[in-house]
Amino acid sequence: MSETGYEYRVVRGFAFSALFWLVIGLVVGLWIAFEMFNPALNLTPWLSFGRLRVVHTNGLGLGFGLAGIFATSYYILQRLTRAPLAFPKLALAHLYLFNVAIALAALSLFMGMNTTREYAELEWPLDVGVVILWVMYAINVFGTLLKRQEKQMYISLWYIIAMTVTIAVLYIVNNLAVPVTLFKSYSLYAGANDANVEWWYGHNIVGFIFTVPVLAMFYYFLPKATGLPIYSHRLSIISFWALIFAYLWTGAHHLMLTPLPEWIQTVAIAFSIFLIAPSWGSVVNGYYTLQGNWDQMRSNYLVKFFILGITFYGLQTLQGPLQGLRTLNAFFHYTDWVVGHVHMGTMGWVAMVISASFYYMIPRITGNELHSIKLANMHFWLILGGQLTWTITMWIGGIQQGAMWKATNPDGSLMYNFLDSVTSLYPYYKLRFAAGLVYFVGILIFVYNLVMTVRKRPVKA
């Protein structure tokens, strides 16, 4: 407990849990990136691409992403309400059980226990555990809001509330299943209904983990880091409600040109295009906050992370809706272009904003100065260079891949077989692996910098 009465042990615990799972998830990611051009690394079923890929996505999405969200949201919640956590012991229990759940989830996926549903691969006993963890978190969120000392609710609190409520609904509805053994269950849905529910969940669980709470961080920490008020609180509120309204209708854009009813696909396309407006509302808000103070991009190491992060978010929210258009979807879907699209968001937007949030937050909850601003700048340039090389490589590879799949001879037969398209991508996969190594070095510097910051003796006022 800090001198102000705020509970910071749980904040620090989740922050370093996020760093731990970030390193583990990236190691697994590098392994499977190597497997893409060296299949001999599939040494055992436990190290096969099919198993490691879901360990990678869950380890980073849930282990790093959610832990980072819990750390920052517990911090933001207390600061914006001017009240300590309503149930600090429950928050600590949440921390310990969270790490146990992530470890068990990784182990189960290594073992091949998998529902085969994207971002919902965990079998039913672990699903129950996830729901319990989420209820523990929600009790603290709403309990603290109820006892808040600050009447005005800043935009970051609205984003935290939206995440807390929506993820609960998404997770429970999509993961309804009939258990047949202790470690196996089957979805309550079937056929096209199953696909529709799954991608209503799949798209929106990504949105409400990788968009909504990260915007909460952005709106809180950017003004704190710059010493400048957010450009327009009204614009942030309008963007919030428009984003929340539109997001939940867009999942079917993952199912273009499938047996799903065409009207559902069209509704998803329309709302996907609409999403560009509220998303760019936040981008514009971030840019205009710095009007007249762009020199901070040079003088303030945190600003680079936030501004490049929101830029990648803006690019994501142009790419995503446009990929949902039927003509473009017919070319890009199932290619490595989509892999590049996803990773620009996770390696750029999400990782950069969480990094900057941690750089701001950790020194303040420990009473220490950051170990090295020089290392923080090095971290920034390495992950920026690694991410850009990684994603652009996959975009180019995806365009080549799509073109080869659709190329035909004068008689209408396919010009290339599937194996031709796979082998042609080996140079891109090797470059992706190299870019991933650069990015990983940047992350190791990030972790080292924060560990050394915590190990310092507190600065006396």
TrEMBL record:
TM helices/strands, residue ranges: 12-34, 54-77, 89-112, 124-145, 157-180, 200-222, 234-257, 263-289, 301-318, 338-360, 380-399, 431-451
Topology with respect to the bilayer: Multi-pass membrane protein
Stored PROSITE patterns: COX1 (PS50855), COX1_CUB (PS00077)
Annotated ranges, domain Cytochrome oxidase subunit I profile: 14-461
Gene Ontology cellular-component terms listed: membrane
Gene Ontology molecular function: any one: heme binding
InterPro entries: Cyt_c_oxase-like_su1_dom, Cyt_c_oxase-like_su1_sf, Cyt_C_Oxase_1, Cyt_c_Oxase_su1_BS
Compartment list: Membrane
Keywords: Electron transport, Heme, Iron, Membrane, Metal-binding, Respiratory chain, Transmembrane, Transmembrane helix, Transport
SUPFAM superfamilies linked to this entry: Cytochrome c oxidase subunit I-like
Pfam families: COX1
Main location: membrane
GO BP annotations, alphabetical order: aerobic respiration; electron transport coupled proton transport; respiratory electron transport chain
Family recorded in the similarity comment: Belongs to the heme-copper respiratory oxidase family.
Stored PANTHER family: CYTOCHROME C OXIDASE SUBUNIT 1 (PTHR10422), CYTOCHROME C OXIDASE SUBUNIT 1 HOMOLOG, BACTEROID (PTHR10422:SF29)
Protein name (database record): Cytochrome C oxidase Cbb3
